[in-house]
Amino acid sequence: MERAISKPKPYKKFLIFGILSVTLYYLLITHQELVKEFCSKGKYYAFFPIITAFIFSFVHGNFTDAFWSVLGVEPKKKRREVK
Amino acid sequence: MVEGVLNSNFIDINLLNALYLIFVGFVGGLVSGFIGSGGAFILTPSMMSLGVPGLVAVASNMCHKFPKALVGAIKRAKFGQVDLKLGLIMGASAEAGVMFGAQIQEYIKKTWGNAGSSLYVSLAFVVILSIVGTYVLWDAFKSKNQEIPSGEFEKPDNKIIRFIHSIRIPGTMVYFPSIGKEISVLLTIPLGFATGMLAATIAVGGFIGVPSMIYILGAPALKASATELVIAFVMGAGGSFKYAWSGFVDVRLSMLILLGSLFGVQLGAIGTTYVKDYMIKFVMGTIMLIVLVSRGLMIPVYLHQLDVWFHLTPEVIKWLKILSFAINFTALLTGCLIVLGALIKGIRKEKAYLRKEALYMAEERKF
Fold first, then answer.
1. ipTM
2. Domain segments of chain A: what residues?
3. For residue B247, what is the DSSP state?
4. Residue pair A66/B80 in contact by the 8 Å Cβ criterion
5. What is the rounded CA–CA span in Å between residue B146 and residue B213?
6. Which residues constitute the domain of residue B152?
7. Are B266 and B93 in contact (CB under 8 A)?
8. H or E element, residue B184
9. What total of structural domains would you count in chain B?
């Protein structure tokens, strides 16, 4: 049980994906006009928002996952009831 | 409230808008991870309250939702809550529903413009939320009084479920682990199709998907809400592509919502491991009814913009918009507080238990 409590926290994952996530959002915000143009074109440009969504989800998803673990918010462990 | 740019599908995003979208995303994600059916029913109206046309709000919402649904599904599969077979089978018919629903949306937008599109989306919200919200809330109170032993999944049971389970169509029967029974695939098709069609209309298929899996197919609420994430991914990917093909996805909106949402969805999914089944239903029903009022208030405004029936003064329009926005915001806060409250309570209880157990083990080692 002590081992479960002191499980190593994913600091490396948190840092790497954190930096990547910030970079992606920085690029998105600073290139708004280009993004708007690509989104409104339609047809084969449809791949742009879809691929963007996947990349952001992967990077930011990993970051947020590590974020809660680093903060120590974990799911309840499955166990038998012990009174 | 920030007004959107008129005559354009895509609004200007400033710092205030961006922060609001991130917050909205966080609450939407939190509720989403918690109840399974996308917190999109919070997100679509919230985006619309920024001036985003109904169709663009639905399309952008869907685009942020499907990769998030994948993240949520993987996470909840690890907790053993996902029925992949049921998710994929319902997802296939949901895909057809999405394509059909998207066609209707695009036709309305082309014929009646942004006000027509927003009116259609809002009307759909009001009808669906009043039916599903009331039933879910009533059911939540009912199940609260029938305490279920902790660690057990509630097995729903009613006349419809027993009837569905009794139908046997040779060659179409499939065993679904979450339900624990064989059900004909043909019976899941209308449910999946309706789920997809609703998803294309308001970006929340879960309103039909989750309750139909619980009250018609007989899947436990926790498993139904987790399985809905698989359906949301399958139909969301197809629907987003369809809308993006017509140039209706504003990926800036999608990604800003995703920013807050992924923080929320992970936390919400963790939250499900700490609470009882009825709590999920309670959260779902409460938020649904609050959002219903918010959307309902905007209907006269859209009717006025379309120049039918209602003719309102600018002052009345302004107040209706503010009131609708404020009520929507209340729904966000309510959802946020209920889920976070349940989570904090659960974590405290768990930590106290772990401390007690560690102490007990230390005592045992002494002897």
1. 0.84
2. 7-71
3. T
4. no
5. 20
6. 15-366
7. no
8. strand B181-184
9. 1
